[in-house]
Amino acid sequence: MLKTATLKEIKNLTRDVLEITFENSEDIEFEAGQFITIKIDDKTPPCFRAYSLNNSNFDKKKLQLCIKVIPNGRGSNWLTNLKTEDQINYLGPNGKFTFKSPSDKNVLFIGTGTGLAPLKSMIENQLQNGSQQNIELLFGVRHEEDIFYLDYFRDLEKKHPNFKFHLTLSQPKEDSAEYHKGRVTDYLEQNHIDPKNTDFYICGLKAMIESVQELLQSKGVPSESIHFEKYD
């Protein structure tokens, strides 16, 4: 059954990444990490596109997305052209990429690009719920101009001693203390992880996820400790 939400804000995070906030017409229940499927009503017949929710579930009417604008992409371009107070129709929330870790395990979230969205949702939820787990986020992009939510996650670090944020750039234009140089797999190879007492949540493109899975398993991480969602 289709539900209705109203556009409240579109914010440019980078040259091709948008944060889009909707207000649902009624209270909605969802698990952090889930997605909604939006009806793209640009022409007949319409199509449907799935987008992960970017926010925690504490605000029962808020639905926030973090999307990459794809050249000639039917879904992202239709959303980009919406005006404040326009309405969308959607299905969901749905999805099984949700937080499953017991409270005595460390957690490492690994995301690239807009694969950050469901991870941000889960991190917000855990910290707002008062979790004392050791939670880390490893976020990878290519260039300096592709970075988003840097201030947000640095602020979370200051507010929550159990949360750490690591940023890595695969093709930086210059060196900086703000980030590590290399891919997320380079960071994982160079830094210690506890394979027996850590759960991993990975989101991004298929090639990255497969590379990270292979690396983690080579370090002794059991497959049941690796959770992922592919964006292609």
Fold and architecture overview:
This protein has 232 residues and is α/β, with parallel strands linked by helices. The chain is 22% helix and 34% strand. The protein folds into two domains: 3-94, Beta Barrel (Elongation Factor Tu (Ef-tu), domain 3), CATH 2.40.30.10; 106-230, 3-Layer(aba) Sandwich (Rossmann fold). The strands form two sheets. The chain has a six-stranded antiparallel sheet with strand order 4-3-6-1-2-5. Strands 10-9-8-7-11-12 form a six-stranded parallel sheet, sandwiched between helices. A hairpin with a 4-residue loop joins strand 1 (3-12) and strand 2 (17-24). It is globular. The mean pLDDT is 95.
Provide the fold topology.
Layout lengths: L2 E10 L4 E8 L10 E6 L6 E6 L9 E7 L5 H7 L6 E8 L11 E7 L3 H13 L6 E7 L8 H10 L3 E7 L10 E2 L2 H7 L7 E7 L1 H13 L7 E5 L2
Parallel strand pairs: 7-8, 7-11, 8-9, 9-10, 11-12
Antiparallel strand pairs: 1-2, 1-6, 2-5, 3-4, 3-6
